[in-house]
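Support request, please re-run this one:
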Amino acid sequence: MHERTWQRSSFCSGGGNNCIELAADDSGIAIRESSDPHTVLTTDPTALRAFLRGVKEGRFHLSAG
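Re-run finished. Output below.
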């Protein structure tokens, strides 16, 4: 297994252990939480782009009650 170069979200403050990290390589995009670095999700750039667009548009907000 090769070593990935991880980048933290710009919303991660203080360098704590509560951050989203991304790494890109030939196999796609890897995503992990800094608090659980051994659990890694992988996706492709198109799917990640669609997900991020949905987040920005508020499609994943949970309604109360």
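Residues 58 and 64 are 14 Å apart (CA to CA). The mean pLDDT is 86.
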